[in-house]
TrEMBL record:
It is a multi-pass membrane protein. Residues 1-160 form the Dendritic cell-specific transmembrane protein-like domain. The lineage of its organism: Eukaryota, Metazoa, Chordata, Craniata, Vertebrata. The gene is Dcst1. This is DCST1 ligase. One of its GO terms (cellular component) is membrane.
Length: 160
């Protein structure tokens, strides 16, 4: 026969009409398989975004509740009194008298430099992270139409 049409009822479900915009049964099966391949990537992306939010929450709690400030004050006073009027007492007073010191120390410190400073991801950053996967899913849905074009090109070169 010169033409393939009209098709039998059993043949209509297996034939792909290139001019119809709707998805057809043979194409739908291929598209679903491609979309199923995107599920592990989607689960990994959800896991990574959840882990990011969890780590941000933990670091934020640590930053808000772990601030410690220390105040340290000391006073040291060393005084050596040498009694007597002899030459040895005068010598000791002149040498040991240099050791008489008085030191007051006051120090305040905190752990603010050691605390984490977490920054959460913004909505734009989450969208930028999810955009490649959304593009991949849309391309899986749209791959049907280039495949139809492939069949039209093949029928042009190989009409039989």
């Amino acid at each position: 026969k010169q033409t393939l049409l009209p098709l039998l009822r059993a043949e209509v479900s297996a034939f792909v009409f290139p001019c119809h915009l709707a998805l057809q049964r043979p194409e739908l099966k291929c598209m679903v398989v491609e979309l199923l391949k995107c599920i592990p990537l989607l689960l990994f992306l959800i896991f990574v975004c959840g882990l990011d939010y969890f780590i941000f929450s933990v670091l934020s709690i640590i930053q808000n509740h772990s601030f410690v400030q220390y105040s340290y004050q000391t006073r040291h006073h060393v005084s050596v009194n040498v009694m007597g009027a002899s030459l040895m007492a005068q010598l000791l007073r002149s040498t040991i008298g240099a050791l008489n010191t008085s030191v007051d120390t006051q120090m305040e410190t905190s752990n603010i430099a050691c605390l984490p400073k977490p920054h959460g991801m913004s909505r734009e950053q989450y969208l930028t992270t999810c955009l490649p996967l959304l593009t991949l899913a849309l391309l899986c849905l749209a791959q049907v139409y280039p495949f139809r074009l492939r069949r039209v090109i093949a029928t042009f070169y190989f009409p039989k």
